[in-house]
Design a protein that fits this description.
It comes from Streptomyces massasporeus. The chain is α/β, with parallel strands linked by helices. It is built from ten helices and eleven strands. Helix 5 runs parallel beside helix 6.
């Protein structure tokens, strides 16, 4: 068998007993591949109170991140028997963070599918890679470099403060309120009818974000959160 379990370490710091008692099996995740993407994801999940099993074939990476994870292991998950011995089939979620080795990414994803892990996330380094993973049946495919590049491009070329695009050409944008949306209640501004967007949140200088309603009066300089079709929110943000 390929290189297998080097370490399976408990996190040095202990959780409070009450918090540990409230922990459920649904808050366990296996992160396979501890490169920049996988390690960042694993650390964020730990901060959110999840139990994280971090796995990589690189001993150096496992040693680097092991003290910050619930469990860690040096293992090659292209071998389905390794996955079984690690107990990954008992997890409700698994993330394949392998990017550069497409063959390994596909093999590990296939093994997780055969193990019937309910929620499988996999990183893709290209659209073609992502299409292969989708055809395999991976539940969630992410292209972090592509998505981040697209997001930054919107921020650089437009007047947006933030941009997130969802499926079906739908986006959420944070932008400074244009003059056409200020001075009157949103219900009277006809923003939705004229521009096809909905203002869902508002932030005034020195205040927290609050939900927007039909009676909300947006003031000059307010930051607003707008949703709608991607082209519509882009056009609206350009009015700022």
């Amino acid at each position: 068998m390929v290189r297998y379990l080097q370490s399976l370490r408990r996190l040095r710091r202990k959780r409070p007993a009450q918090q540990h008692a409230q922990h459920t099996a649904d808050q366990r995740v296996a992160v396979i591949g501890l490169g920049r993407f996988g390690s960042s994801l694993a650390n964020e999940l730990m901060h959110r109170g999840w139990d994280v099993l971090g796995i990589d074939t690189d001993t150096r990476l496992v040693q680097k991140y092991s003290d910050g994870l619930t469990h860690s292991a040096v293992a090659d998950c292209t071998d389905p028997e390794v996955l079984r011995q690690l107990g990954v089939h008992e997890f409700t979620s698994a993330v394949v963070g392998i990017g550069t080795d497409i063959e390994a990414s596909i093999l590990v994803s296939s093994n997780l599918l055969e193990a019937e892990v309910p929620n499988i996330w996999a990183k893709a380094i290209s659209r073609q890679h992502g299409q292969i993973l989708e055809r395999l049946g991976v539940h969630h495919v992410v292209l972090p470099e592509h998505e981040m590049g697209e997001r930054v491009a919107h921020l650089v070329t437009g007047r947006m403060l933030d941009f997130i695009e969802f499926d079906d050409d739908y986006a959420l944008v944070k932008t400074v309120a244009p003059d056409i949306a200020t001075g009157v209640p949103l219900g009277q501004s006809q923003v939705r009818g004229r521009y096809g967007v909905t203002v869902v949140g508002i932030k005034r200088p020195g205040e927290d974000f609050t939900y927007a309603t039909a009676d909300t009066v947006v003031q000059k300089g307010d930051v607003i959160v707008v949703t709608g079709k991607t082209h519509a929110v882009e056009t609206f943000a350009d009015l700022s």
